[in-house]
Amino acid sequence: MVAPFVFSGSCGDGRLGRPAEQSSAVFLGSGNEGCQTSVKYWEKFKTFKERGEWVELQFMAAAAQHRFAVSKPWGDTKAYDVGIEHKGNYLRVQVKSTTMRSGAGYLCQFHPNHNRKCDYSLKEIDVFAAYVIPENVWYLIPAALLLGKHRKWIAMLCPLATPKKKACYCWEGYRENWNILTRSRSDLLQCGR
Fold it and tell me: What distance in Å separates the CA atoms of residue 43 and residue 54, rounded to the nearest whole number?
């Protein structure tokens, strides 16, 4: 079996996250100008699980670049995908991704996968990290905003332009907001109130 990722490249900024068979797209960091590809790299994954695992790796690398200590729970039994430690504080992060373009934004779903019988809970997750793959943009959203009193199953993320509908704009304050990961669980729970 061939390793699915290599750690170098000639296009973009040459950081981690390039699938071995893809030579013209950089998935992490900026610098994609001038890179052309006929097949979108996210369409090369055979399953959503495979793409999800890749997105988790992208999140862990991005968090490490922001100087967070990163851990991964063993197996698929936990509701969260990645643990983030910062100054003695431990947050549980559920990683999601989207390529679903809708108007000026992207729709991102916050459903558990089909293997999970019950919904996510604030007792299990502190933050959702949503990756807009085509734009290489992260949204770090406190779980209390999605799982609170008014459960939100989907969010419109608009990294390209200011949304026309005010309701869609509520997520833009969480775009690339890595400081969310420095807050305590109790602080994040207050976001939903």
Answer: 12
Q: What is the dihedral of CA 114, 119, 120, 124, to 10 degrees?
A: -100
Overall fold of domain 69-190 = Trna Endonuclease; Chain: A, domain 1 (3.40.1350)
As a whole number of angstroms, the distance between CA 109 and CA 124 comes to 18
Give the pairing type, strands 82-86 and 69-71: antiparallel
Residue 3, pLDDT > 90, answer no
* Domain residue spans of the chain: 69-190
Q: Please name the residues in contact with 124: beta carbons below 8 A apart, sequence gap of 6 or more.
A: 78, 79, 80, 92
pTM: 0.76
